[in-house]
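Retro notes, item 3 of 5
We never archived the inputs for the nicotinamide-adenine-dinucleotide complex last cycle. Fixing that now. Sequence and ligand:
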Amino acid sequence: MTADESQSDHAEESAVETARRQLERAATHLDVDEGIVDRLRYPKDVYRVTIPLERDDGSREMLTGYRAHHDNVRGPYKGGLRYHPGVTEEECVGLAMWMTWKCAVMDIPFGGGKGGVVVDPKDLSDDEKERLTRRFAEELRPVIGPMKDIPAPDMGTDPATMAWFMDAYSMQEGETSPGIVTGKPPVVGGSYGREEAPGRSVGIITREAMDYYGWDPAETTVAVQGFGSVGANAARYLDDLGASVVAVSDVDGAIYDPDGLDTTDVEDHDERPGMVSGYDAPESLTNEQLLELDVDVLIPAAIGNVLTGMNAREVSADMIVEGANGPATSDADRIFEEREIPVIPDIVANAGGVTVSYFEWLQDINRRKWSVERVNDELEAEMCSAWEAIRKEYDTRDVTWRDATYIVALERIAEGHEARGLWP
Ligand code: NAD
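Structure as it came back at the time:
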């Protein structure tokens, strides 16, 4: 199972606080109506629903679900549905705000949404998960729709969950509506290339960043924390490009080969759990040691908050590309800025996931399937165009890559509000 668009809790600030801090930092560089910035500090609305779940033993439980809508000035709300015991209304709002910024920086015609159910998916049988999903789809039906709000998988949910969700919604609507969710299996309207897309986009953005700094891929060393969906696809993309991927890890530890690993020979966590740390490599390291390796590019692609005020001074990489969501805390960010280590942020680097979700939605509403070659070509074009917009801001202002990215996002959202005249 992969963790689509998910974010671990920030140790020092919540997702809402992070999203607001980034908004406020970007706003200081732009001449944006203060009313628009004020409005973007808050969600447009948040729905809370009660989901009765009948357990396999016949007992009943009332579960709580949420769907937060942050901003839809640029298009329908878009964002994952998470099944996790830690889901809260505030977390959904914060992650919905992140989705608004991410869609805007990619120039995708979507706004930000996020939702979830407070439940531990490990406690659910497949039948219980299906009943829960169908009932959740029905409870959310008044506030979602292919032109209104399009959910996707996230922590604890997967393509099978999306297929049930789509089926339940379609039955109630009386017509097959594949465009109601993305991340479905390709047989019911999912897109080829969706699974590989976030890692692929990390690879593309790393390639562009290396090019910006004039680094020859053949002379570049890379370390990737978390050889899962995002990490393995990014590592293999860069390996194909000629870079030397010297270290990768899973939850149990890291492997290191100064001459470069064969990233197709190392099986990823999903392919064979435990096989990363168990691989026969010249050296084994801890995950902490991997983060401090003297490499050109460090790609944290496992979980959030791995780069903190405690270890940021020990990082020896010349550039960091965020594969995971929120891998650097704001303390770490400050230290990297002071040390002049470029950090290419998550909201662009791993945005291949939401970008191919957008392609999936286009395929669904047009009833026309794209080949994986077309998906990858269009992804390449979207990523390069987002990078170009960010690079322009970076080159014309004295800001970090993260600030440049949020400036691009906020500028587009603010222009949308101004053009539509929703404020004042
Ligand atoms: P995944 O489960 O496929 O892989 C995660 C990898 O990290 C595995 O190799 C696992 O062993 C390792 N790992 C887990 N805990 C670890 C720890 N404490 N220390 C070191 N390694 C650890 O997950 P994924 O889908 O690749 O997601 C990775 C990150 O990327 C998450 O932050 C996720 O939110 C983000 N992301 C994923 C997608 C997506 O669509 N898959 C999209 C955008 C962002």
